[in-house]
Amino acid sequence: MLNIDRYHATMGDASYKEVTRLHDTLLSEAEATFYAAQRKLPCAPCLGHERLIRSFLDLRIDRPRLRTLEQDRGGMRLFAKAVEDITFAGTVRAVRPGTIMFAGQPFADITGGFGLAQAQEIKFEHAFDLPMTTAAIAMQIRLAAGERWLSDFSLRRNGDIERAVDVATYAFIGGFNDTSNMEAAHRLEIPAVGTEAHYWQQSYVEFMDEPEIDTRTGRPKHFEQVAFERWLDANPQGTTLLLDTIDVHMGAVHAAMAATSTEARRRALKGFRVDSGDLARLGKWCLEFFEANGLHGLMPVLTGDLDADQIRRIVAEFPEVAGFGIGTKLSGEVRRIAGVIFKECLIEGRPTLKASNTPEKSTLPGRLQVFRGVDEEGRYVADVTGLDDEQVEIPGAARVERLLSPFWEGGRHESIPSIVKQKAFVEEQLRRFPAINNYPHILSDKLRTLRNELTERMRADDSGWQKVLRLPPDLDGEFNARMED
Length: 485
Prior knowledge:
With 485 residues, the chain is α/β, with parallel strands linked by helices. The chain has two domains: 6-133 and 337-443, nicotinate phosphoribosyltransferase; 139-332, Aldolase class I (TIM Barrel), CATH 3.20.20.70. Helix content is 40%, strand content 19%. It has a seven-stranded antiparallel sheet. The chain has a six-stranded parallel sheet with strand order 7-6-13-12-11-10. It has a four-stranded mixed sheet with strand order 18-16-17-21. Helix 14 (308-317) links the parallel strand 12 (299-303) and strand 13. Helix 1 (6-15) crosses helix 4, helix 2 runs antiparallel to helix 6 (121-145) and helix 7 packs parallel to helix 16 (419-432).
């Protein structure tokens, strides 16, 4: 596969040409380091290591695709030759799978010859972006829901089954309990969950014209009661009834009538689900109604385009809620993705950065490391992003952990823990953060000084360009005034 952008190919090809040499080294062979970070989420478990490994092990590019490079208008024959039957010899460091990282912190880096190392950018972005986005959403929902049950209902919103399995995987690690996705349940060996849809009740509309008679009342049954009775009969080991096909209040009445018609049906009814309306108010009303009619111990499950903020409000208003099903907001209508970036920070041992006119897009220089302070009780105190050769002290910390460690070298990689172990690791960390949404994470003084001084040096220019370039007054009068000064 040509899993690269064209600019990777053009830069790679140019780096193999003599005219782009550094002083002593062909640019393609100059040792460069690029780091990966996410910059759009406050925090996220770092997941996707196994996807990165797969992309490194699948480097072979077939002849038709090599020909695409060779016949490109840029004539990228040198790059095509470099990537033919290549085994990438670079090294990768990464944090442990599942490590909760904060915006801007480097969670992985890669070091190797510039020509091929820079072409790994898409692999890093594809490997980590979806997993970290999904797990971060799942983790925030878990924090909002407390100990309540969380189910992944996103299969229909994921576009294809492979993406759906990935979403189920990373939602599970991030804090969910199960999934409605049968393929994911099979592959991951996690529980599958799912009950009736609205169209089960809809399918019984003929009983509006030819109703059954309820022997207890001598009156015709509502067709929804008949549908519920058939469903309970078909699922005697236990099931949940969906109440809002017509109206939630009516649905609760019909569910109660169905469940109290026989002992077997009563045993089969374990919970109810509300999927629309004011979920907290309706869920609370239904629970009180069922209990008033002798149906005790039912589990209220709420669904309907829920996100962490809505769940937090529901829990405050209706603490008896047993669980939530999350679909659209988990993978379809995602407000913010992780936004994984891949930036050069070293070239031939020299720190480098992107200064940028947009401060939040500026990057970090040097061989980086993330230091996490831990107190005597094992709680996290603060994070410091600094340089790898620093000895960082963090106030209040009994010890300081270095999060980036060797992950891939010479075709060999560290083992990936099972998803159950990754999930347990995320849970353990959440207990160790005193307040994750207000957790301090800063740059070390040494790294900040290096960044500021390097930025200043990069922007220093005595070429006289200021006298050459003069913008029209209507475009930048302030700029021209500075030039005249």
